[in-house]
Amino acid sequence: MSDIRPRVRVPRTASAGESVxxxxxxxxxxETGQRRDGSGNVIPRWIINRFTCEFNGRNVIDMAxxxxxxxxxxxxxxxxxxxxxxxxxxxxxxxxxxxxxxQSIEVA
Amino acid sequence: MKQRRLGPxxxxxxxxxxxxxxxASLADPHPDAELVIxxxxxxxxxxxxxxxxxxxxxxxxxxWLYRTDETRALQMDDFDxxxxxxxxxxxxxxxxxxxxADASCASCHGDVETMRGVRATMPRVNxxxxxxxxxxYINDCRTERMGAEPWGWTSDGMKSMTALxxxxxxxxxxxxxxxxxxxxxxxxxxxxxxxxxxxxELSCANCHEDNNGRMIRAxxxxxGMVNGFPTYRLKNAGIVPMHQRFRGCIRDTRGETFAExxxxxxxxxxxxxxxxxxxxxxxxxxxx
Lengths: 108, 288
Fold this sequence. Notes:
B: alpha+beta, Cytochrome Bc1 Complex, Chain D, domain 2, three-stranded mixed β-sheet
């Protein structure tokens, strides 16, 4: 599929100091740059090369991605939350496009 | 046969061992596995065999039961299920006006939830007496009502739309009609199911009746039920429609295959679907 769309799942609520599970998925072809088309020309590399997550402006994860990662990359990780706030997820690809999604969480 | 070269005693031992192996492997691959989506929606993956397959099976089983723990888990959470990417895209297409009539699916049908039940009765004989699959009905809407170009059977648009429409019927039992006007197509499909194709001379039944539960090299043979289609196949990293799967099976017999969307494959689809009557539609399933 050619349209690129991020999906994110963040729990709506958590207790202070709790470690919450964050799941992300983005539809992306993740073209490796190793393949050739029907005419023998190299298909240019086009992958998500960097993924970051921030919570209230603080960095949670900053990840470099390489060509061996399959299409529609799924990334799951945990974060400890101590206050109500907003997670910002950002994907950067080789074409310079940036995709973001934000989700808020309420800490009781 | 290897056994012919063995002495009588060794052959008998080998036959016994084989018997023991087959009964073990034919048992329910994961007897405790229950398919529950997001901890809420229970799907039927084992059902009493419909009358017309009772000569082969007591219980018909979804292909989900034959997959590994990890693959089965992917389907139990809609976020983890990568097929939902196609469903999202299908929803966009549902609301997009196209063609000379500048109409979308929603213009006539309203909310996509009105499609609940449709997938469970496909393929179905249309008003002109022809057997049509879901794809045919979609393209008929596109060309006749919207004045738009028809989608290819395995195009992204078609796969996204069938994923979206199938999801609406998730949890409903598969219930295709096999009598009345559908009877002749059903007979045609049954004939195909038991016909040996290709240089390897294999019929559908050779794998999915005679050897289900056994391994064919690295693959665990299922009963070949189609209640999970359209399926997200990890191998393809995308949705695989039923006819593409049929094509793959016949290709593996080293035979010339029928085309996706051909009358032959629609008839086969009806017969295979009827074998799984009673199993839940899984909407967008995940397979290896």
